[in-house]
Every structure is written in C-alpha cells, then in structure tokens.
Amino acid sequence: MSMDDKVRKAPLGGKKSVLGSIASMLFHVLSLGLPSSFSFSPSVTSSRSGASTSTTWLASSSSTFPDHSAISRREAFFRAAAAGASSAALFVPLRPSSASTASTAEAMGGNLNDLPPEATRSYLQYRVPFVISSDFYIFELQEKLESTDDWGEIGQLFQANGGRGASLPSRIEREFVNPMRILGLSMPPDTAEKMQDSQAIFERGMFKLGQATKGIRRDIPIVIDAAQIKLANDGWEEGRKGLNGFIVALNEATGLDDVQTLPPRGPNQFQEYGRSKRRYNELVKKTKLCQNRGGPTLAQAWGGLMVTGYLQDSCGIPDLELYFNQK
User: Given pLDDT bands bounded at 50, 70 and 90, which one contains residue 273?
Assistant: First the structure.
C-alpha cells in the first residue's frame, strides 16, 4: 500500500486529531527556515495588512486544490503549508536599511540629517521600543511598586536568565540600559556625555530598586520593613530622573519632541504624561497573545490554514507608529 493510500484510509480521529496532525506537520515545515521569535521593531507589519494577506490566500485556495482525486491529501497539505509560510514571511521584523533610514529621517525633519548616520539609524530603530519601555516604567512598574505583593515580579526584572552556561541580560538591561548605551555611543561627544551621565543615574536607581526587592518571590508572603520600602521608592524616583535626563538630551540632539519625559508622582501624573494607559495595556495583552501563538510568523501561518474558525487570523498587535504618536 502506498503512503498516499495510507493517508487516505487513516482514520482522522475527530477534530482534535486533525488539529494535532496539522500542528505537528506545520511546525516541521516552518522550522526549516522561518524565525520563531518576536520582538518590537520599527518595521513590524500591521495586523490589518496581515488579515488581508490571509484573506487573499483563502480566496485562492479553491483554485489551488481543484480536485481531491488529482492530488494526495499529503501533497495538498504541504502546498497549504508553503502558501502559509510565504505569506507569514511578510511579518518578519526587519531593521531599516540605509535608504529607508535616509528617507524616513528626511520626512521626520528636526536635526536627524545633521547627526552622524549611526546616530540617526539608532534613533529610528530604538525610538518606539524606548517609548514602550518608558510607558512600562510609569504605568506598570510604578503600580507594582505600590503593592508589596507584586515585588516578586519586580525582582525578576533584574534576573539574568540563561541555560547551558549562557548568560542572557535581564529585562532592565535589555529594554533600558542597552538601548541607552547604544544611543549614547552613537551621538556626538557633547550629547553622548549627557546621555551617559543620565544613564549612570538611572542605573544607580535600578540598583537600589533591585536591592530592595532581591530575594522576594511571587506568592510567598514575607515581612517587608519600612527601610526596604523607602529604598525601593527612592530607587524608582532616581531611575525616573535618570530617564528624564536621557530623554531631554535625546530630544535636544534630534531636534524633535517625540519622547515624553516622565512626570513625578501625583494625582495628575498620567494627565501630565499625555500617553494612554489603556492603549499600553491593550498593547501588552495582544503582544502576549501573539507570543503564545509562536510570534507573528506562526500566528499568520495558522490563520491561513485554520479555516474552521478555531484560531483568529492574525496577532492583532496595534500599529506601533500610531501607538508611538499619541499627541
């Protein structure tokens, strides 16, 4: 009996067996060359364009498989997987090329064309992730700081995770310190010095916050004394001042006022900040949902293959340029 005959005669075993088989085979196909990680990037394609891509593929599927007797079920599946993979490739994050960087810098104006090319490239690459990190600092980290029950999650921000002898940077290093270092090193000397001084202030604040929350784990209640609480709040405030100094130097260098400084605590803090906490929470929620589906690449491929309605057709991450520009 041929393999095609076995595939035709093999019992499907219900919807769960079908989904399990498709998942296994799709993973095998996509793991050959497509990236499985997801990260914010200035060139991430919006979900709306992803949905239209998926719709176009589904509309043409009837012409792709006109007759089930002409081709085997296995061959039809691999054609479907290839089509899904090719549409998913549209969602691979790309760094801006030199040509796109020049045209974007010219469109944005300010002093970008007068800066060193590396400074312009670094600004265009990190401006959106840096603003998202600033939103995290004021909307989420500050909120966790106010509840000692969440201090275990704060402590995890400073943990460097890794396996098999490899050491990965902590979240604070990855989302704050490293972008600040790259931006600072790319700028002219006077601006770089201001940025590095502000970065040092931020790191001192984060060291205090890390010391105050060190050893505290989630879901394990412990007694936290007043000195720890004061140290943690002092660290957050010092980190805020360091971020603000860095942002002011960045805006002066670019001639743009795109990145907002973080106002001090108070009843009108969010209003003075001028950015939406609701939109931040929506972005975080949809990003986590997308990551649980394997990132934009696999999520889009699943959307093309799952025509039964079990899965949505895209990650649905908001347009990051629109998220960035909330003025």
Answer: very high
- pTM score of the predicted model: 0.65
What's the fold here for domain 112-255?
Four Helix Bundle (Hemerythrin (Met), subunit A) (1.20.120)
Q: CB under 8 Å to 222, separation ≥6 — which residues?
A: 216
Q: For helices 73-88 and 47-59, what crossing angle results, to 10°?
A: 150
195 close to 187: Cβ distance less than 8 angstroms? yes
Integer Cα distance of 253 and 281 in angstroms: 30
Q: What are the tens digits of pLDDT across the range 163-222?
A: 566 678 999 999 999 999 999 999 999 999 999 999 999 999 999 999 999 988 877 777
Given a contact cutoff of 8 angstroms between Cβ atoms, the answer to whether 45 and 320 are in contact is no
Domain assignments of the chain as residue spans, ordered by start: 17-94+294-324, 112-255
Rounded to whole angstroms, the Cα distance separating 70 from 74 reads 12
Kindly state the tokens that stand for 22: 């498709």
